[in-house]
Amino acid sequence: MTGRMDNEAAAEVDGRTLLEEGRRARQERAESRTLGARVNRIFADRPAWMRGAAIGAVVVATIAVALVLIEVAVSWGRVHPGVRVGEVRVGAMTTTKAAARLEETFEPRLADPVALTFEDEVWQIDAAGIDATFDGEALVAEAMEFGRTGSLGDRIAARVSLWVTPVVVPVTVEADREAVSAFLAEVADVVEREPRDATVVIEGTEARLEAAVLGIAIREDDVRDRLLEAFVSTDRDVECEVDFTPVGVTDTDAKQALEDAQRMLAGPVTVTDESKSWEFAPVDIAPWIAFRTIPASSAVATEAASADNERSVLQAYISAEEASATVLATVGEAGTPAVDARFQVGGGSVTIVPSRDGVGIDVESLATEMTRVLTTEETRTVQLRTRRIEPELTTEKAEKMGIKERIATYTTTYLSTNKPRVSNIHTLTDALEGTLVAPGATFSFNETIGPRTAAKGYQEAPAIIGGRLVPSLGGGICQVATTIFNTVFESGLPVVERRNHSFYISSYPKGRDATVSWGGVDFKFKNDTDHWIYIATAYTNSSVTISLYGTDPGYTVRGATGEFTDVRPFPTREIKDDTMATGTRVVEDAGVNGRRIAVKRTVLKGGTVVREDTFTSAYAPKEQVVRIGTKAAASSESTATAAVP
User: Fold this and answer.
1) CB 253 within 8 A of CB 200
2) Which one of 49, 94, 596, 629 has the minimum C-beta count within 10 Å?
């Protein structure tokens, strides 16, 4: 209501202004009589037509002034005649009446849903669901502005134009944009689709064209505007406007690929090598056929490729990867395999064993020639070709890796009596041998070795699980983890991750053990040098040695092992055993006291400290298990009776 009162007050002020203008107009009209007489006097000695034109102009001006006065009277505090809000004529209405008329007309329409349609799909949307509203007072205020702004001449011109051409104020509806967008997103899930290029599909040994499909995208802004307009319209159905997005490859652009694929499948192909030959049937050829998109300008001169350079066409070809899998399985590996360069270490020095090139079937050339022959030649025969195969690690590459001297080495020992554990140590050490760590890379024990499975040769041996020694597949791997940790410790390289065992094991260096488990605890170190690092291993039945080779970074390592602290006695668990004589006591599993120890490492280079590390190990007490005999001694009577034959 405040808005309406403000509009009426503004109209009253504007009316007073126009009343004053009308008063001046009446005065001008009175003066026009005198002006007419003056015109007659001025033009007394002029032709009659000139006097008539002058008088006519005076009459027109007088009529215009009269019309303005009439319009002022009609529009006093009201919307000017000729103004509409939507379909509602609000001209000559007060702001209060105009607002009421708009509410009466449009409010009921907001109560009815609007239907959005696309082909056979229909979606209903309610005004309440998207908070759709219209502001009648604001619309009336906008309608009142016509003929009331600008200079006097502008206002008069605007009012005069309303007599001839009515002005329509569009009815605007406001809504929650996020709610509307969410609704349109649901519609888009059904309506929209990505364009799909034409392609060729091979089923069995038959090739067929799969036609291109235009993409569809909703014109979201246009659809949103039309939906909101419909809420105040008598037409409640809105058609979902869409754009059709073009495809990259049309049906015509795929025509040549279809014809080529059909030629490829028209019969068998023969692969020859000197006096040998192998025939492959269409059923073998079908999986070899692949398709790719290429610029039309680079395709062969065909009807499909004769258009502009921006077009793309589909091309059929024999895939080297797919064909080689079948051909090599039939023909067999020809030539000799390539041999990588390798590092041979001993006594702290490194020797590079040179790489050797290999000779093998040129599958790329085979596929290219097969594509040409099967699409253009009558004789479907392809000659097998070979090529030089370069090893992955050439001698030149190996020489540039900077692996030339030993950086650090460490050896740990173990009992040779537990054969499965010894076997696991050897198996894992072999897997670690020759591992290369790139400059700046981080070595991961678990990622390098992988799962410890029976298929890899690992056996069951004692391992610490849940704080107890129990048989486990791969038991003994922590011997290797502890060894490589100590090697890295002595090298001065950064240790990224290390965890001590759950209880103290005296056979390992104090506070310098390391445990690992697949999918859990890991050991990691970083190669912070500018060259590669090579991990070399060696073992006997009672020791394992791990060395790091590369370019010595010049680190000096100082280690300091602290004293044991926080010593906690181990608990004892007694198990009664009726198979043992009373009073017999046997330690089945020795206990170990809990304790804590810290080992510090200082790494220097040229007398400057590079890094300082503290490796703290907190060991929990390990339970001691003791068996106590409870078997009663046999009586003498029973013994005597037993002795009677």
Assistant:
1) no
2) 49
Judge if 471 and 377 occupy the same domain: no
Helix ranges (DSSP H) in 75-209: 95-110, 136-144, 152-164, 177-191
**Residue 181 near residue 130, CB atoms below 8 Å:** no
Structural domain span for residue 119: 2-175
Same domain, 358 and 466: no
Q: Kindly report each contact of residues 629-634 with a partner whose C-beta sits within 8 Å and lies 24 or more positions away, as own/partner.
A: 629/577, 629/578, 629/579, 629/580, 629/581, 629/582, 629/583, 629/584, 629/585, 629/586, 630/576, 630/577, 630/578, 630/580, 630/582, 631/577, 631/578, 631/579, 631/580, 631/581, 631/582, 632/582, 633/581, 633/582
Separation of CA 408 from chain center: 43
Listed residue (60, 70, 72, 62) closest to 30, CA to CA: 62
For residues 334 and 465, state if they share a domain. no
Hey, which residues does 411 pair with through a beta bridge? 545
Give the span between the Cα atoms of 257 and 263, in whole angstroms.
10
Tally Cβ neighbours within 10 Å of residue 555: 19
Asked whether 525 and 488 are in contact (CB, 8 A), the reply is yes
Q: Are residues 373 and 483 in the same domain?
A: no
Domain endpoint, select from 175, 200, 225: 175
Burial 221-254 (b: 16+ CB within 10 A, else e): eebbebbbbbbbbeeeebebebeeeebebbbebb
Q: How many CB atoms lie within 10 A of CB 34?
A: 9
Residues 502-537 as b or e (16 or more Cβ within 10 Å = b): bbbbeebbebbbbbbbbeebbbbbebbbebbbbbbb
Q: What is the dihedral of CA 355, 360, 364, 365, to 10 degrees?
A: 120
* Cα–Cα distance, 504 to 618 (Å, whole number): 9
- Between the two ends of the chain, the Cα-to-Cα distance in Å is 127
Give me Rg for the CA atoms of the chain: 49
pLDDT confidence band for 275 (50 / 70 / 90): confident
Residue 245 belongs to a domain: no
Cα angle for residues 428, 433, 439 (degrees, 5° grid): 120
User: What DSSP letter does each residue of 327-354 carry, written as one string?
Assistant: HHHHH---SB--B--EEEEETTEEEEEP
Which residues is 601 bridged to in the sheet? 559, 613
Please name which of 53, 18, 19, 14 lies closest in space to residue 36, comparing C-alpha atoms: 53
Residue 72 lies in a domain: yes
pLDDT in tens, 421-478: 899 899 999 999 999 999 999 999 999 999 988 898 888 766 666 555 556 655 778 9
The string over 444-453, giving b where at least 16 C-beta atoms fall within 10 Å of a residue's C-beta and e elsewhere, is bbbebbeebe
Whats the size of the chain, residue-wise?
645
Cα 545 to Cα 44, 282, 409: the distances in Å are: 135, 58, 7
Note whether 366 and 428 are same-domain residues: no
> How far is the C-alpha of 330 from the C-alpha of 384, rounded, in Å?
13
- In this predicted model, which residue has the larger pLDDT, 132 or 461? 132
* Six token digits for residue 489: 């410790």
Q: What one-letter code names the amino acid at 382?
A: V
Give the model confidence (pLDDT) of 319-377 as tens digits: 999 998 888 888 876 678 899 999 999 888 999 999 999 988 888 999 999 999 999 99
Query: Token pair of 172, please?
Result: 């605007």
Sheet of 381-383, strands arranged across = 276-280, 269-273, 381-383
133 and 264 fall within a common domain: no
